[in-house]
Amino acid sequence: MTTVEAPQRPPFWRDVRVLSWAFQLVVFALVAFFIYWLVGNYQTNAERVGISTNFDFLDQPASFEIPGSEFSQTQPVRDAYVEGILNTIRISVVGIVLATVLGTLIGIGRLSRNWVVSRLATVYVEVVRNLPLLVIMVFTFLGLVLQVLPTIQEAWTPGGIMVFSNRGIAVPWYEGNSGTVLFLLFLVGAVGWWALARWRQGVAARTGAPSRAGLIGGGFFVAVMVIGWFALGFSVTTPVVEGRLSVGGIRLDPSYFAVLVALVVYTASHIAEIVRGSIQAVPKGQGEAASALALSGFQRMWFIVLPQAMRIAIPPLGNQYLNLIKNSSLGAGFAYFELTQVTQITVGNGSPAIPAFTLALAFYVVLSLITSAAVNIANRRFALVQR
Amino acid sequence: MKRWIALLAVFVLVLAACTGDDDTAGDDGGATTTAGGGTETTAATETTAPGDGGESTTTVAQVADESLIETVTANGVLKCGTRDALPGFAVLDESGEHVGFDSDFCRVIAAAVLGDAEAVEHIDLETADRFTALQSGQIDVLVRNTTWTASRDGGEGATFMQPNFYDGQGMMVSADSGFASVSDMDGVIVCVAKGTTTEGNAAAEATRLGLNWEVRAFDDPNLIQEAFLAGQCDGWSSDVSQLVAVRSVYPDGPDALTILPEVFSKEPLAPAVRDGDTAWAQAVNWAILATIQAEEFGITSANVDDVLASSEDINILRFLGAEFETDSGTTVLDPGLGLPTDFAYQIVKQVGNYGEIFERHLAPLGLERGVNALWFDGGLLYAPPYR
Amino acid sequence: MTTRTAPAPALVWVRRHLFRSFWDGLMTVVFGGLGLYILFRLARFVFVTARWEIISTNLKLLMVGRWPDIHLPRISVTLVVLAALGGLVAGLIHARQVRAGTSAVEGMPLPARASDLGRRFGLLIGAVLLLLALTTTVGTWLTAAGFVVAGVVGRLAGARIGRDRLSRPVIILLTLVFIGVPAGMYLYLVDAVPLADWEGFFFNVSAAAAGIVLSFPLGVLLALGRRSRLPLLKTVSTVYIEVVRGAPLYVLLLLANVSLEFFVPASFSPSKPIRAIVTFTLFTAAYLAEIVRGGLQSVPRGQEEAAKALGLSPVKQMGLIILPQALRNVIPAQIGQFIALFKDTTLAGLGLGILELLGAAEAITQQPDFRGQGLIIESLAFVAFMFWVGSFTMSRESQRLERKLGVGTR
């Protein structure tokens, strides 16, 4: 195949290149025709029954409100979508972090020498993994939010700075300036920390002087944050109970809490299996070598085994992250205003169903593609370069 | 523009390829060429205007050239869009039969058109798809606790009938909450069921009264009740009929709940048919009106045979499709609705009059007739004369 | 240490597995306490506080929805036939293993075999017995008995048929049986009750099975397309796979619910189960494609090169050499996908309003006798139990298969 010199071109009906392009064009034409047919049907039918197929509804007033945000009913539907997407991202990011932590712990727990721990971890994985997520969500809502958290009248206020009740968990938060400014401040501090740390590590490598990277970088970060905080007029608000709601600070929606816990619990059961498999795939010699170096159990796991296991685990973990993002759409049933809930409510209030749901779907696809791109980059960065 | 968006919709739904929009020639031309996909839709391409312009109602009725009244008669079964879990209006008994006020109105229509109250196929619909089901011909009539509003009449391709129940949105609170009026409720959480006008009404009312409400929307009424029991919600807002239904079986007893006196929206719940089929709309409308007329006459399922045998009242005889004397001999009134002349008799005999249906399904919930009484009892129900 | 009298073995085990160090002991106490507490609460709920009348009253609605009583025997017949078919497969696989000398159970004494079967299917059998105990009709017991008998007969027949190497006509015959009989059973059921009226747990199982079977050809084609060297084909497949995998099934179902009838000619309005199955199929195909692609990659390159060296055409290379090995390698992953789909069929209730198990479980809480009593917990516990038993049994069998196929241990 590699070195054959074609003495003469075969007739075009036997030329592989021509044939393959012809085949492709036929497939493509079929697909295109199919889409064309569907679109045609859609338009004919939509006109027949007189339903709207355009996206003008995005500019109409929403006529519903979103708790926990500034969004008001007179704003256009467009803004409601933005709010919904932000809420989806909010729950996905936090969920991914927590699920990874919990899943890793349980995955390690399954391999524990402690019989109780390994048994419990196994039971956890086998029970949770095999239940429909929707059912888990109902249970976390009914069992956790409504049973465990107290009513607002009997709210827990640990230290007077937080308010735990079944109307939400309120924690201290900043005020006085915008979140974007705070984020920029944080970014400046973090980038400075990173640059300083690199510089100090370079110096340490060249001269052998102690690097003190953490001290200098961290100090810079803290200094930036503290000075910026006061210079830009930030202050802290702490929540207090006022009547039937908590005021001040920031309040996490109880539905957010229920949906988040369900997502984390469910995804962690899958992540635990991935982590367990990956740890088992790390050559045994690695752990034994670590033991031989007199590393403690924790050190062996944290510095030797887990980093190598995580390398194997990245692609399947990425799949679980995608699943978590998509599964957050089930939060719609539990009064959490993420993208799907916003879409359903706006359809209930008169937006045309097909464009509204299509838009939501497109956002999910974009979100997933971004996530999987990030996972691919991470995978390429950490993959073991072989041979 | 419209084409392009429609294409986008299909793209995401069918998910096949990224190009293929080679038909940007023009809206009308595109529609004409693509209609070849369906056999019956070719007629629709002759009229390109969406069917909302004044009297050009011809565009909408092209699925079938005949009225639904003929289709339903030919099929021998009425496809009635309904739901499966709304106490009093439509729930499933343990054998899966639909039981309730709305379900009986499906039977009323079947009895009128087909002479058999059981010739109904109850099709459960979600809030989001009830109008598309009507538009697409999946159902013949929608009897699903649906509020008659102008934009639904205009925008959803639906025509509403005589309301079979006049409802209104109200607010229910715990009896020990101290709220005596909706305007007392400031800084509270109000829980509602998702998907209809309920959230919008609650938000509008809060704005009107200058109150701060957090409106939380749930899919499942079970979740609202549990949230309410756990003290997560201060108010439960829904149609008063539903609030009464919930209150009557509340676990802590009906007296633990108070329904506040204000009713802050009008919710005329009316059956709906597809736009543009006047003959079918009139038939359905008169089937509903016949239940009211029967109650006005005092005819019930128990006495209808006696009335038919003994009554001398020409109005009653006309109504029941019995023979009556005229100058030119005996005759039977056929008003030309396309219904059998004895349709009212069949309705009353097989299902009952309005009062009976109400007593059967809504009175057990603790609902009183109120505005749903006959006009001479101070209610709103009034049947035009049948002659 | 060695001079001390050896402690009782149980004590050694306890020390080694529970109290190796202080932290170990602490974890044992904390987690052990937690586990016992959860167990206690669960047991108290199941045996003391729960009110199960709502389930026993509505059992038929939950399991088969509104399937007409006179046609129930058709489900029984189908179950019995499928049991025979399942037994036949098990028997054939067993015979093959015996021939290859890899059978784990051959030569095992009968009690040991029984206990092996008990470990594998005990949970499932227990669940079925529980359901039987709740029913009031003889028919269900007869069905269960028929199911067992048919399964055993099928197993024995399979073992007998497979004792010798299968001849070509036998293979063709068996293939026809495995395709024809399920198709025939489907027609037999649809003849009595149209697909539009399939409900309850029966819907969950059938929809998951239909989804996985129907998505298989599309999934394989997409996987081949994605690996193809033809750029156009590759693009189409890749876009499809990535877009579908980025979309939540729930939103796809919601969209299918409101839109599917607009994309087909007006004369055809698909029923809800068809919408669900179409969505499941299109959705699962993208995932299956990725699984199959993984399988294709796991086939060593030498196989393809050897096939080429034999002068096989590209189609034959793929169809006879590579694809069979690839598909064999991905059977466990396919079972995993089936389990996921099985659980996801619950979304059809929420998204499409089909009266599947979860939808029925929520609907029955609104019945006049049961509404307003917080019975949603009992109702959902039943749903959770049904799905858990099914998924757990399947995932265990899949792990067993994985070990047998030696996937991942090479």
Specify the biggest β-sheet of chain C.
Answer: none
Specify the helix fraction band of chain C: over 70%
**Backbone structural class of chain C:** mainly alpha
The CATH architecture classification of the largest domain in chain A is: Orthogonal Bundle
Strands ordered across the widest β-sheet of chain A: 1-2-7
The strand count of chain A comes to: 7
Shape call of chain A: globular
Task: Work out the strand percent of chain A.
Answer: 5-15%
DSSP strand (E) fraction of chain C?
under 5%
Classified by CATH, the class of the largest domain in chain A is Mainly Alpha
Distance between the ends of chain A:
25 Å
Number of domains of chain C: 3
The averaged pLDDT of chain A comes out at 87
In round numbers, the mean pLDDT of chain C is: 87
Low-confidence stretches of chain C: none
Number of helices of chain C: 18
Written as H for each helix and E for each strand, in order along the chain, the element string of chain A is HHHHEEEHHEEEEHHHHH
Description:
The complex is a heterotrimer of chains A (387), B (387) and C (410). Chain A has 11 helices and 7 strands. Chain A is globular. In chain A, strand 5 and strand 6 (245-247) form a beta hairpin. Helix content of chain A is 66%, strand content 6%. By secondary structure, chain B is an alpha/beta fold. Helix content of chain B is 35%, strand content 17%. Chain B contains 14 helices and 17 strands. Chain B has helices at 2-14, 27-34, 68-75, 101-114, 130-136, 150-155, 198-209, 221-229, 240-248, 278-297, 304-310, 314-320, 343-350, 354-361; strands at 78-82, 85-86, 90-92, 98-99, 120-124, 141-142, 158-160, 165-167, 169-174, 188-193, 213-218, 235-239, 257-263, 267-269, 272-274, 324-326, 329-331. In chain B, the strands form 6 sheets. A 5-stranded mixed beta sheet of chain B has the order 11-10-12-9-13, with helices on both faces. Chain B has a 3-stranded parallel beta sheet with strand order 5-1-6. In chain B, helix 4 (101-114) runs antiparallel to helix 13 (343-350) and helix 10 (278-297) packs across helix 13 (343-350). Chain B starts with a helix and ends in a 26-residue tail after the last helix. Residues 5-64 of chain B have low confidence and may be disordered. In chain C, helix 5 (72-100) packs parallel to helix 7 and helix 9 crosses helix 12 (272-298). The longest helix of chain C is centred in the last third of the chain and has 30 residues, at 376-405. The mean pLDDT of chain C is 87. Chain C starts with 8 loop residues before the first helix and ends in a 5-residue tail after the last helix. Helix content of chain C is 77%, strand content 0%. The radius of gyration of chain C is 25 Å and the shape is globular. Chain C is mostly helical. Chains A and B meet through helix 1, helix 4, helix 10 and helix 11 of A and helix 1, helix 2, helix 5, helix 6 and strand 10 of B.
